[in-house]
Design a protein that fits this description.
alpha+beta; Rossmann fold; 5-stranded mixed sheet; 14 helices; about 25% strand
C-alpha cells in the first residue's frame, strides 16, 4: 500500500484508456457532455445550495466564516455486488462497535481478558466513567454511525476511521441527490440507482424503536442543537424539518423529577428521545463541564433513570478513538467470533516504543494523526509536508507519543471530477451511514463521497478545501442501460 498509480473508479488502473465495462455508459456521458454544460449544471446546484443556506462554518477563518461545500457534478458509482460486500462488512463492524460500548461501560470483559490494554480504555479522554453501569434501551449505543472508507483497487476497500459520536454529512448526501435528479435526469434513465430519500423515514423509525419502555406508542422525539453558531447547524435544522420533529436548544428543555420536558407556548410536553448534536462535554453541566451553557441540567439523571433515550448514547466517543480503531480486527473477532470483513489500514500506535521508533524514522513517508483528531486537523501527510512541519511533528511525537498513530500513505482511488480545465481525476473517500435500532442494523444505500479538489491532494475534508459528490448505488447485478 505504498506509493503507486491510483486506481480510477471509472477508468481502472493505468490511465485513461478503456472504461470498466460496467461503467461504460457513465464514461460516454462524461465524454459526450461538454465541460461548459457540466460547469453550468454544477454552478446551478451550488447556487441552489447557497439559496437554501446549506453552509458550514470554518472556525478561526474570519474571511470565510460561512461557506458552501463545493459540489461536483460527476457522480461516483458503486456496483450492486460491491455494495453488497460493503454492507455485510459495515453491519458486522457496527454490531461490534455497539457490543464493545456495551461491554466497556459494563463488565469490561474485553479488558479483563487481555484483548485491550486497561489504560487505553479507562485512561482514554473519551471514556466517560460517569455513565459506567448505565444501559441504553435495547443495548444500542451508536444508533447512527458514519464509517469512513477508502478504496485502493477494484476490490480493495479499507476502513479509515469510525464516527460514532455525532456523525455529520447526511444532509449533503440528500441534497446532492436532489440536485442530481434535477440537473442530470438522463443518468437516472441510464442507471437503476437506489434511492436515498427514505433516510429520514429510516432514522425516525430507528429513533422511535429505541424509545424508553414508558414512552407509549407515539414517543416524542426532538433534535438537540448547540445553536445557530455551530458549524453543522444547517444539518441540524434540515434533519429536524425532514423528520417532522422539534429542533430544540438547551433552554427549550427542562428536567423535573428525572423526566425531560420541552417548553412550548401550550405548556410542557414530555420528551422521550433526544437526537443530540451536542458533544458529551457540554451535554449536562451537572455531570460533565459545569460551565456548559449548551447542555440540559439533570439530563444524565433522566437518562440513568430510563426515562429518555439519547442518540447517540453518551460515551460513544471512545469508539472514534484512532488507537481503539487499530484494535478493531480484535474487537470484531472478540464479539462476533469472525474475522473482520472490512480491513483497517495498517496502523502504528506511537504509544508503543517500537512503533514510535519506526514512525520517527519514516515521518516523510507516513500519515500521522491525533488519536482524537477530526476534520483533517492535527494531521501530518509526510510525503507532501515541509521540513518544518515534519520537525514540528517529530517534537510533538517525542513529547506525547500516546496522542498519535501513524499509517502508510495510501494511493486513494480517484473519480473523474470537473476542474478548471475539464474533467480530471481527484482522490475520494466515502462515508456510508449505518442505523441501529431495536430491530437491527440498516445500511443506507448511498452515502457522502468527499473529494479532494486540489490536484494531488489526499485531504478531502470540507474544512481543508474538499468537496462532495453524489454516490450512486446501483440496483441489480448490472446497470440497466437504456437508449
Amino acid at each position: 500500500m505504498g506509493k503507486r498509480r491510483a486506481f480510477d473508479e471509472i477508468w481502472g488502473t493505468g490511465g485513461r484508456r478503456r472504461p470498466r465495462k460496467e461503467l461504460a455508459e457513465l464514461a460516454r456521458w462524461i465524454e459526450a457532455t461538454p465541460a461548459s454544460e457540466l460547469s453550468r449544471r454544477q454552478h446551478a446546484a451550488e447556487a441552489a445550495f447557497r439559496q437554501l443556506g446549506i453552509t458550514f462554518a470554518v472556525y478561526g477563518d474570519a474571511d470565510a466564516a460561512e461557506r458552501i461545500i463545493p459540489f461536483d457534478i460527476v457522480p461516483r458509482v458503486f456496483l450492486a455486488d460491491e455494495w453488497a460486500r460493503l454492507s455485510e462488512g459495515l453491519v458486522q463492524r457496527v454490531e461490534a462497535i455497539n457490543a464493545f460500548l456495551d461491554d466497556v461501560y459494563g463488565e469490561a470483559r474485553i479488558v479483563r481478558e487481555g484483548v485491550l490494554p486497561p489504560d487505553l480504555v479507562f485512561g482514554n479522554p473519551q471514556f466517560r466513567p460517569e455513565i459506567a453501569g448505565m444501559k441504553p434501551p435495547h443495548h444500542v449505543w451508536a444508533h447512527i454511525c458514519g464509517i469512513d472508507l477508502v478504496r485502493t483497487g477494484p476490490d480493495q476497500f479499507w476502513v479509515l476511521e469510525d464516527n460514532a459520536r455525532t456523525p455529520s454529512g447526511v444532509s449533503y448526501m440528500l441534497e446532492n441527490r436532489e440536485a442530481m435528479i434535477r440537473l442530470c435526469p438522463e443518468l437516472f434513465r441510464s442507471f437503476r440507482v437506489a434511492p436515498v430519500d427514505g433516510y429520514t423515514d429510516m432514522l425516525l423509525q430507528t429513533m422511535k424503536s429505541v424509545a424508553p419502555p414508558g414512552a407509549g406508542s407515539s414517543p416524542n422525539c426532538v433534535v438537540l442543537t448547540p445553536g445557530h453558531y455551530n458549524s453543522a447547524y444547517y444539518e441540524h435544522s434540515f434533519l429536524a424539518d425532514n423528520l417532522g420533529v422539534e429542533l430544540v436548544e438547551a433552554a427549550d428543555l427542562v428536567v423535573d423529577d428525572d423526566v425531560v420536558w420541552m417548553r412550548t407556548i401550550a405548556g410542557r410536553v414530555k420528551v422521550d428521545v433526544i437526537y443530540r448534536r451536542v458533544d458529551d462535554d457540554f451535554l449536562d453541566p451537572l455531570v460533565f463541564r459545569p460551565d456548559s451553557m449548551l447542555g440540559v441540567p439533570g439530563l444524565i439523571a433522566a437518562y440513568a433513570a430510563g426515562n429518555v433515550t439519547i442518540i447517540n448514547a453518551p460515551g460513544t466517543g471512545i469508539a472514534d478513538d484512532k488507537a481503539i480503531y487499530s484494535y478493531m480486527p480484535e474487537i470484531v473477532r472478540f464479539y462476533s467470533g469472525e474475522e473482520a470483513k472490512l480491513p483497517i489500514v495498517r496502523t502504528w500506535r506511537c504509544r508503543e516504543p517500537d512503533a514510535l521508533e519506526y514512525v520517527l524514522d519514516h515521518l516523510d513517508e507516513l500519515v500521522v494523526k491525533l488519536v482524537d483528531g477530526s476534520g483533517g486537523y492535527g494531521m501530518l501527510v509526510g510525503p507532501t509536508a515541509s521540513d518544518e512541519e515534519i520537525a514540528n511533528f517529530r517534537a510533538a511525537l517525542v513529547a506525547e507519543p500516546h496522542r498519535y498513530i501513524a499509517q502508510p500513505t495510501l494511493a486513494l482511488s480517484t473519480v473523474p471530477t470537473l476542474g478548471d480545465k475539464g474533467v480530471v481525476p481527484r482522490h475520494v473517500d466515502f462515508r456510508p451511514f449505518v442505523l441501529t435500532g431495536a430491530s437491527g442494523v440498516q445500511v443506507v444505500p448511498g452515502g457522502l463521497t468527499r473529494v479532494a479538489l486540489r490536484e494531488g491532494s489526499l485531504v478531502v475534508n470540507s474544512s481543508q478545501g474538499g468537496g462532495t459528490k453524489d454516490s450512486f448505488v446501483l440496483l441489480g447485478d448490472e446497470p440497466e442501460v437504456r437508449a
